[in-house]
Design goal:
- This protein has helices at about 20-40, 50-70, 70-95, 125-150, 150-155, 170-210, 215-245; strands at about 10-15, 15-20, 105-110, 115-120.
- The chain has about 250 residues and is mainly alpha-helical.
- Strand 1 (about 10-15) and strand 2 form a beta hairpin.
- It is globular and about 60 Å long.
- It is built from 7 helices and 4 strands; from the N terminus they run E-E-H-H-H-E-E-H-H-H-H.
- The model has no long low-confidence stretch (mean pLDDT about 80).
- The strands form 2 sheets. The protein has a two-stranded antiparallel sheet.
- It has one domain.
- It starts with 8 loop residues before the first strand and ends in a 6-residue tail after the last helix.
């Protein structure tokens, strides 16, 4: 078995390749949708079991969102995106740590030589996914800012007149803001990918060197890292969404 940065292809639907990271993403998405749908269909006035868990998750995330926005209406608007990002990234990270998912697979060809291709791989360990998620978040931030302030007022954050006092400073600040928007995409992409991929590499190496007991501390560490990365990604998205709705003069 080899360590590969790129996700490995398992099979194809026509011309559409299905990789091991795509497969685990589809499984996590389907499981979350089925779980929430089942709870909603059997909703009870007095919650218990899974309904209790779901209510705690929803209330905790909503309270956190409201503590940042300081606006109940805005918190309800941002909640679906923040909750979706947090839950999907969290369970994708954790699913990649389940025993056997990174070591059990099919014997096939990858990068020109034969090796074991694992059936499943954490979605966040695929650079394509983290880049796509980052682009979705950054574009959503821009659209939210335009919707809240209007395209002219929002554009003033980036295109400030060079003749406005203090001369030239405003334009320089605007250009820095523009560069920072591009930097958000890069930061989002590589922070999530780097942490999760490095964790998978570490666990794979430890399992091959000392397969019993010694990898356990690293496994618990990666469970914690998976949670922290989901929180960081969701919280940064929330903060940037809030900042996009604040007028340039503030």
């Amino acid at each position: 078995m080899e360590i590969s940065i790129a996700a490995e292809k398992l099979f194809s639907f026509g011309t559409f390749p299905v990789t091991n990271s795509f497969l685990i993403g589809a499984i996590v998405s389907g499981a979350l949708m089925l779980w929430t749908r089942r709870i909603v269909e059997h909703w009870k006035e007095v919650p218990r079991g899974s309904q209790n868990v779901l209510e705690i998750i929803v209330e905790s995330i909503l309270d956190l969102v409201q503590s940042v926005t300081q606006d109940r209406k805005q918190a309800l608007k941002f909640f679906p995106l923040i909750a979706t990002i947090f839950l999907f990234v969290l369970f994708s990270n954790w699913a990649g740590l389940l025993p056997g998912l990174g070591t059990v697979g099919i014997y096939g060809e990858h990068n020109g030589h034969h090796t074991i291709i694992p059936f499943l791989r954490s979605t966040s360990a695929d650079l394509n996914f983290t880049l796509a998620l980052s682009l979705i978040v950054v574009f959503t931030i821009q659209f939210t800012g335009i919707a809240a302030l209007g395209i002219v007022k929002y554009g003033k954050k980036f295109f400030i007149s060079p003749f406005q006092k203090p001369y030239g400073i405003g334009m320089a600040v605007g250009l820095l803001e523009l560069v920072s928007e591009v930097g958000k995409t890069i930061s989002f992409t590589f922070r999530l990918f780097g942490n999760v991929f490095a964790g998978e590499v570490l666990l794979t190496v430890m399992l091959h060197l000392v397969p019993y007991f010694l990898p356990l501390p690293f496994l618990f560490l990666e469970i914690f890292v998976g949670f922290i990365q989901a929180v960081v990604f969701a919280m940064l998205t929330l903060v940037f969404l809030k900042m996009a709705t604040i007028p340039p003069e503030h």
